[in-house]
Amino acid sequence: MKISIGRTTLGLYGGGFYGNLRFFGRYIQSVLEIEQFVSTFDELSITLSYPPVNCDKQFASLLPAFQANHVKLPSLRIGRKDRRLDVILPATEFSAYFEEGDKRRDLRQGNISPVSGFDEVEIAMQLLSKVEWSFDLIEPKLKKGEVFEFDKAKQILSTIRKQLTTEFLEKVDRVQSAENQQSRLERAISLRTMRKDHLRPRQVEVRDLRLYTHGFPPKLLYPFDYIYTEIFLVLLRKNELLCPTFHHLYIHVARSREEALVASMATEDWHEGAVAVLSPEEFDRKSSSEKSAAVFDLIVAGLNDFAELDGLDRSCIAKVVDEVSIRHLETELIHKVVENSSHVLTISYLCKSIEEGSPVFFNLMNKTSLAQKKVQVGTARIDQIPLWIQKVELTKSTIRVFSSDSIRADVYLKGKTRSLELEIEIFDA
């Protein structure tokens, strides 16, 4: 029987424990399996519900409803059709522990180290008591023919309780962490094999391309990842690259192929993962031009991985790679082309960092004389450009530009001019 232990509080659902308790629930499950515990149910889900120590202002209005539901706990749901047991337990004693651990997670300090100020042996003891409470809730609710070896399960918990020491928890974490990593790696390889062996028709336009790093310092690849992903995405869309069922392409970058594989497993059908490998220490020692080349290579490796696994058009990818390799970071992208009987207006931009802003250009060509002139009309973040220059009217004498009037535009374009009018004669000067 699979055992999963999760948690919930006001404004948060999901998450686990920290330090040497990360895989403690997995360890309990493994001991039950070794001792050949028998149940007619396939899964037991235990959720610890705890009130916040400090209520975030944005969730303050929801606190009364949370408290009203919290006092009604514990709860048990028996899903007999799917052979699943769902238990929600009140766990106020865990509030301070989780809140302190979550602060560290928000600072990108991970979940490997124990939460300072808390005794992990004591936390493990409390967790075992919660698991035993779950068993007590289940026992009187079973029907004839349903099996759950309560006495054996409680004896196993008692045996674990007697072994609890800091050294024991450290050993459990080492063993379970390695087994968990190996299990996830095998799963990732299996999923990749399935993708390769069962190619699906390509019919979905790509919408997004991202690089995700794992175990790297924050923003190590910036701004090169920010710029290159936009360049490649625009050109892949221009060349009509099609995907099977997904439209978000995520390239997972890690120190080793194994780490990248584990991180690359998709959780939804609208995105899919590919892998690339990079040493963050070696990258950090590179010059700016070398860093640019390294990020370019990561994206190329990721796209080729997608082609190998999902049958994406290699010729389309190669064409885009060749185009980007000419000017690299200085590749100019087309946002819009508008024309009338006398002129053609091409609106383009160069991708730059968020801080610098991407310069936006109007290039106007006279159809009769073929004379053309290029003028920079401003700078904007990449995500601002489609909202800032949404509608363009081109007459014989003027260019009128209008921004989106959506709420999203109100947020994204705060402080920017929302309309622009230029006389065509300035391009003829």
Rg from alpha-carbon coordinates:
28 Å
Mean pLDDT: 93
**Beta-strand percent range:** 15-25%
Query: How does the overall form come out from the CA principal axes?
Result: elongated
Helicity range: 40-55%
Strand order across the largest sheet: 2-1-3-5-4
- The secondary-structure class comes to alpha/beta
The biggest beta sheet, please? 5 strands, mixed
Helix segment count? Answer: 14
Number of strands: 17
Low-confidence stretches: none
Distance between the termini: 79 Å
Offer a quick outline of the entry.
With 429 residues, this protein is an alpha/beta fold.
What is the element layout, followed by pairings?
Blueprint: E1 2-9, E2 12-13, H1 24-34, E3 43-49, H2 63-70, E4 75-79, E5 84-90, H3 95-106, H4 120-138, H5 150-163, H6 166-197, E6 204-205, E7 208-213, H7 224-238, E8 242-243, E9 248-254, H8 257-263, E10 271-277, H9 280-284, H10 288-310, H11 314-327, E11 332-339, E12 343-350, E13 358-366, E14 372-380, H12 385-388, E15 391-394, E16 398-402, H13 407-412, E17 419-423, H14 425-428
Parallel strand pairs: 1-3, 3-5, 7-9, 9-10
Antiparallel strand pairs: 1-2, 4-5, 6-8, 11-12, 12-13, 13-14, 15-16, 16-17
Helix pairs in contact: 4-5, 6-8, 7-10, 7-11
